[in-house]
Design goal:
The chain is α+β, with helices and mostly antiparallel strands. The chain contains three helices and six strands.
Length: 166
């Protein structure tokens, strides 16, 4: 016997359908899907890591490789992970600097989710002997009590030696 959670899935169009969006237009917030956060009053951190990120240098066309990680405290919405993966794939033939990519991902997630806090980390593989890491983050303007609770959750998350280890 199976049971169903209270998760709202009616507005998800990619997950489980076999239909893929057209990625040829490059990355954009329209590729991302969201679902309602069942725990909007509880500040908790969601972390998504994409270790096979690729894009192209806007000047040379050479490939850039890296890991893009997103950490956020959701407010009303959460990003659906398959749509996030496809969004990441859309960067493969997209020419942009690493700094722009990291900030674009943050902007797109802010537009889609309006999270309480979001940080995007672009950890790019060395090219030409130079390693570039880009970090971009923003806290949403919130009432004082909520702001304090969210910031405490973020502090606790950052204090973890390796938050991805059990």
């Amino acid at each position: 016997m199976s049971t169903r959670s209270q998760d709202e899935t009616r507005n998800l169009h990619v997950l489980g359908t076999g239909r893929l969006p057209n990625l040829e237009g490059g990355p954009g917030v329209g590729l991302l899907e969201s679902f309602p956060n069942c725990y909007p009053g509880r500040p908790y951190v969601i972390s998504i890591s994409f270790p096979e990120f690729t894009s192209l240098c806007p000047v040379t066309g050479q490939p850039d490789f890296g890991t893009l990680s997103v950490e956020y405290v959701p407010d009303r919405l959460c990003v659906e992970s398959k749509s996030f993966k496809l969004y990441m794939f859309a960067f493969r033939n997209h020419q942009s600097f690493m700094e722009t990519i990291t900030n674009t991902v943050l902007d797109d997630l802010r537009e889609l989710l309006a999270p309480c806090w979001c940080r995007v980390k672009g950890l790019f593989a060395p090219r030409g002997g130079t390693r570039i890491h880009v970090f971009a983050e923003e806290f949403k303007n919130m009432p004082d009590e909520q702001n304090q609770r969210v910031r405490e959750a973020v502090r606790a998350w950052r204090a973890e030696a390796d938050p991805h280890r059990p």
